[in-house]
Write a structure and sequence with these properties.
Order of helices and strands: EEHEHHEEHEHEHEHHEHEHHEEEHEEE
Bound molecules: iron/sulfur cluster
CATH architecture: Alpha-Beta Barrel
Helix content: 25-40%
CATH superfamily: Aldolase class I
Distance between the termini: 41 Å
Strand content: 25-35%
Low-confidence stretches: 1-9
Number of domains: 1
Number of strands: 16
Radius of gyration: 20 Å
Shape: globular
């Protein structure tokens, strides 16, 4: 056993080899498992939860002993506001996403990072739209560099990355730039996101041709009724993306959402309206010779299938993801089990997307 300790933290974890062995338990290379999981989500999400519990590492934050995901994500909810207006935005929650000054935000984030560094978390910067506050984004990038944090990813609607100063600053540090692109036609993409996105296809092609960030771009496409909602549309999307040089694509369903939780009622309704038949799409993927199954992974409320797409001499791994936040909500009741870390926009560090749940640390001093 390995043990580390710091001012307010300590942890112990199994030898690395053992953890790697255990990691395989929820990753299957059998198509049969992926198919079974589509039909029996409950069983597989339970499996993901059991895995999380059995492979957690112990840690103490502010004198409270808890179990943490051994490969935990630290989400930085950088800013509550966005210039887009997607009807299915997951930020439509019923608690306020308060903002604080940049100085205060960065000071609190610095403290939160120090408290959780023993977990060696990977980093995801999300929002709101991170690129509409470049000064704050740059200060976060500086912290990532200062602490040598692992696998930083930025999630963006792409509107701000037409500014090459932003790209030049973030590119050397980040692992991936995840761009939400829910349709390959500008008009449809704008209609869905409720704004005229400055990152239209021609500017995206410009970035792909001119900027080193090109090789780090991943497109996230939500599968939504009347937009990308069928096998044929998925193929059109992939061919468009490959045509402009993007070889990293994730298609995901909107998550199923629990009622009487943190989500606004109209958002729940919108999510139900846009829901598509994931199983039907995956059946078509299976039947088509362009796709070869690679692997399947289940977490406590998300599942991923990875397939290889081959066509006209090009090949590219494609991720299909589906999730159910009813299961994420159950985790909120397991007080000492922390699957993810969320640094909320008001400076609260919590073990949940619910700002008022599993609070790990609040720095109440202000600048
Ligand atoms: S771009 Fe993202 S954060 Fe902005 S409204 Fe759409 S889903 Fe929400």
């Amino acid at each position: 056993m390995e043990e580390l300790s710091g001012k307010n933290v300590s942890y112990e974890k199994d030898e690395k080899g053992l953890i790697v062995e255990r990691m395989r338990e929820t990753t299957s290379f059998l198509l049969e498992d992926a198919i079974n999981a589509r039909e029996n989500r409950n069983k597989y999400f339970q499996k993901g939860l059991a895995y999380l519990q059995n492979n957690s590492i112990m840690g103490i934050i502010n004198e409270k002993k808890m179990r943490f995901h051994w490969n935990i994500n630290f989400y930085i909810d950088m800013f509550g506001k966005c210039n887009a207006n997607c009807q299915f935005c997951i930020n439509r929650v019923n608690f306020t996403r308060d903002d604080i000054s940049d100085t205060e935000f960065i000071r609190k984030l610095d403290h939160a990072i120090k408290k959780t560094r023993f977990l060696d978390p990977s980093i995801q910067i999300v929002g709101g739209e991170p690129t509409i506050r470049p000064e704050r984004l740059f200060a976060i990038i500086d912290l990532i560099k200062k602490y040598g944090l692992r696998k930083p990813i930025i999630g963006t609607n792409g509107s701000g990355i037409i500014d090459y100063d932003i790209l030049d600053y973030v590119e050397p540090v980040i692992d991936h730039l995840n761009i939400s692109r829910h349709h390959f036609i500008d008009f449809e993409s704008d209609r869905l996101m409720g704004f005229s996105n400055p990152l239209d296809n021609s500017r995206l092609i410009g970035i792909m041709n001119k900027h080193p960030v090109a090789k780090k771009i991943r497109l996230n496409c939500c599968l939504l009724k009347n937009y990308i909602d069928s096998y044929e549309k998925i193929i059109e999307y992939i061919d468009w993306a490959l045509g402009i040089g993007i070889k990293n694509i994730c298609f995901s369903t909107l998550s199923k959402l629990p009622e009487n939780y943190i989500y606004q009622k109209d958002f729940i309704k919108q999510s139900e309206y846009y829901a598509i038949d994931f199983g039907g799409i995956m059946d078509a993927v299976k039947e088509n010779s362009h796709f070869d199954f690679i692997k399947f992974h289940t977490g406590s409320h998300c599942m991923y299938e990875v397939w290889n797409y081959n066509h006209a001499g090009t090949s590219c791994p494609i991720v299909f993801a589906t999730s159910d936040n009813n299961y994420a909500r159950m985790l909120d009741n397991l007080d000492d089990l922390i699957e993810l870390l969320v640094f909320h926009s008001d400076g609260t560090l919590a073990g949940s997307w619910n700002k008022n749940c599993k609070i790990l640390y609040i720095d109440s001093s202000s600048t």
